[in-house]
Fold these 2 entries.
Entry 1:
Amino acid sequence: MNPRHRDKVAFVRVCSGKFTRDMSVFLAGADKKVRLSNSNKLFGQERETVDEAWPGDIVGLVGHQEFKIGDTLTENPAIVFDEIPRFPPECFTYLYNPVPSKFKPFRLGLEQLILEGVVQQFTVKDAPPSTPLLAAVGPLQFEVTQYRLEAEYGVQSKLEPAPWQFVRWLDKEGAETLNGGSVHLGDNVRLGADPAGNPVIFFPTPWALRYFGDTNKKIALYELPQKQ
């Protein structure tokens, strides 16, 4: 596919029933319907409009930025497939743009890669927002991010490892307790938030994680964000 093109294609597998172009479906978890008008079959750099598709077929839907990996599209909003298994990130790094004049393509490219799920971005409480904190299950994801930024957006980047090895999600009560300042967090233990605004806490070592859990048993820690 041509890397100069900036349109977005979501690949969807038809699991049951019949797909028809211009049909309206529900995106699981959302209340509104989505019209699937620009449907294509892709082969290399070529596209062919798809009017109908059947179970097992793969359809490329252009221009739907709201679709994410594992989403369910259905005519019946009661149908929801189990989400793809997720794992908490264990690698954290700051990503820098060394060329200020390339800020716009750097930001655009990073936002797109985060949207695709290549890496996750977190915020750290009281930290400057200019340098993004990226998180991944393994360091290879950072290499992929840097490669794609340069290959697809023409921008270079630099990594600076962050001091954390673990992130845990907090519930509302736990976040309020910790933000109140009555609990000593420990060295290099920081509060923050995930992309959805859910409160998190970062730990630099396994010992710091265990110690915090042992001394703050009333504060629940979760490996993944909890469904609301």
Entry 2:
Amino acid sequence: IQRNYDLSDTPGLYLPGRGLQAKRAFAKNLDAFPFPEDHLWAASSITEDAEFLLPFQTRRGCPMNCSYCSTSTIEGEIFRKHAPALVVEEIARQAEKGFDRFFFVDNTFNLPASYATELCEELAAAELDITWRCILYPWKIDEKLVRLMVKAGCREVSLGFESGCEPVLQRLNKQYNSQDVRQIAQILGDHGIHRMGFLLLGGPGETKESVEESLQFADSLDLEVVKVTTGIRIYPHTALARIALADGVISEDDDLLQPRFYLAEGLQDWLPETVHSWLAERPNWVT
């Protein structure tokens, strides 16, 4: 820009009045990128915070295409992964600096299952004195993987099951059902993993009855924490954005840079009040 170069052939760049300049290409080899320069933060002050977890992303991309999620737009639909050995090497380096709690921020730690297994095997073999949490997609998780996760240091998981109503799960384009969620939650609990469940209420087709069904389902799982969100944020280039446009929730002119939310008709007042009443009786539920 300083040298006044012509940027019109730069893939993925938006130019005023000209739109997108060719489709952005995704890097295939994540190992070609360096890990963050950790001299830019003060490890000693951070590690003294008992609540701090060092974030770590081992892969990019997601093929699941949940109706509201922006990951496939931002990162692509194909999984691109760091070599497990390099991940463990970097975590070991950070552990030497005093970090002992990590958060794998990958949207679907358990997918692909083969990669999750290999990564956990590498972590377990390294015998690092660390613990970690991750985000699980409640599908294709068995007791063998959970045991391996625990051996590798997993102590907490975020379990975004979003709903306990089958038609709503289908509208969100989820590949699992409520029975999958129940089974996985049970396995995780049996192995002593702290479970934080997530409910996402108010999307397309949501009704008072489906909300009640989801709340009762979440309650029956007996999770350590449940986080409830009312209304679903609308991100560009998602199925939810197309539905919101068709339903008149947003217009063609909305760039969605400022947060906009989808909340099914008829739930605007009732849903927040209902969730508030449920939370009042459940101290481990949050919004």
